[in-house]
Amino acid sequence: TLATTQGEDDDLDIGQGTATQEQQAETFTTAQEPPVVISLRELHRQRRNRIRLHYSSGSYHASPSSWTAYTLCTQLRFGDTPDLLWLACVGVTDAYLHGRLDVSGYSALTVDLKRHVGRLFPNELVDRAGRAVYAEDLERGFDASEGDAAAGGGAMTQISLSENGRILSQPEYKFMLLRHTTLWESILHSNFVASKLQVWKQTGRQRLMELLAKMGFPLDQCRQPWAFVGTSMRRRLRERLEECTEEYGLGNVSYTGFVRVTGYKSLLSASDMSYAVTALLECSAAAQEGGGASSEDDDMLDHEAREDREIVQAFNVAFDALNPNGSSSSTTGATLLSSDGGIEGGDLSHLVNGGNMTGTTGLGAGIRLAMALQKTIMSTARNLVDRNAITRLNHFRYAYLHCSSNGGGGSNNGPGARVVTPDASKKESSPRDQYHVFAKPLVLTKLAHFLMDVHRENGKWTGTKSRPLVLLAEKPRSNTYMVIGYEYPEESGNVVRNKFGQNFELAAKTMRGTFWFDSFDSSVVEVGAKDVQRFIEQLHYMMESV
Predict the structure, then answer these.
(1) How many other CB atoms are found less than 10 A from the CB of residue 452?
(2) Which residue stretches belong to region Disordered (predicted)?
(3) What is the four-CA torsion angle of 55, 61, 65, 66, rounded to 10 degrees?
(4) 22-81, pLDDT tens digit by residue?
């Protein structure tokens, strides 16, 4: 038996050795084979395919430039400046609110920003108690005898110190400018709540009232400025909101936000700053005046020079609003703008929650303009839906936003409505002098974003019925249309690549017409009024043939 076993083992070893030798021979033979030679033509073709695949995948936004700039500042030993950190918080929040940054990307950046906030502004109770000032100590400095007599007994009165400029990280509600308006107005004009409950309908408003009643908020208190509401009601909002929102489909009503202390105890969130600066940037003085007022110098300029001048003015006003000191920028001339930094709401140091922000520039004007702009967006969306003005094609939906002769779309609630009722001038103007508020890319994108949210929640634009959206807003001054393409994200908070940039370019190349591709966003194009209908048809035919 032992001999047989050894023989079998010898046979097995021989077989394994033979197989190993054969594998080595095959490996040696393979190694001797010459490599495949790729011609220059093939290399060029592969490179062109990679480039074509890269550009055909669509455009998207990378990390916000403000966060990148602050990261660079930390490497250059300038990261301890609170103003730079605040600008980074505003930039990241702005990208998230306007759909350029998805939820996962925003969460990753907020973790990094919270680390820097904790580094610059540590929340140490012991350190804050050591810096406390008491009224008795101040009195003792003026009158030593009375101070020594009073120091023997009784509780001491602590004086709160101003923490102006301090940055905090705390949960932020998806409401609209809550600290600067009423709770009712903030919830009613929130994109999140309006799309979920459809508050423009009577049933939606009734559900909103039921939600407030279940949380224990009387309507008369909800219509008071939030800055003047008692602390018990604010605490009850935090406690009851998470309990009642699930029943009404309002889950994830809060997100991680950033707040800065302004003045003595007023607070300004990064979202409020984003809304205000965006409104100042997108709505020039012509939008605030309804487009009817123009100076003698403006009458002598053509529409292109006039538009360039208004863009520069709007940029300077928005840039000054970002300045925490409220000082005017060097590029803002005294003949163009007047500084309102010394009045309430003119800058961060003069911003008071619930105060009368009567300035024409600065954060106060931006906050008022942002709320008016949000109301215009929601009323215009309701008008488009009620009139069935959105046309569906095989590959996208589109809608026109016309501007009537008086610049108001027939009423203050229709498409092209003025943001602010004109009161600076009663001068009548021709239709070519009127200003259309939706003739700006970002405002038009906000309208498309809200329309997508509304129809995603009601289920009409989901599944096989989902389509991208193309909006065309009239520009009476230049006799053109501002056209934007908005891709459809399947879920709220997601960001998808936008392929309309290359589609717009191909459609423009295959037809005769006047086009302007002068925007940072490739999915934005300005088309001549006489060519806009053919442009939509050509876009449809081109996407149909692909």
Answers:
(1) 22
(2) 1-28, 410-432
(3) 180
(4) 555 555 455 566 677 788 888 898 899 888 887 777 788 888 999 999 999 998 888 888
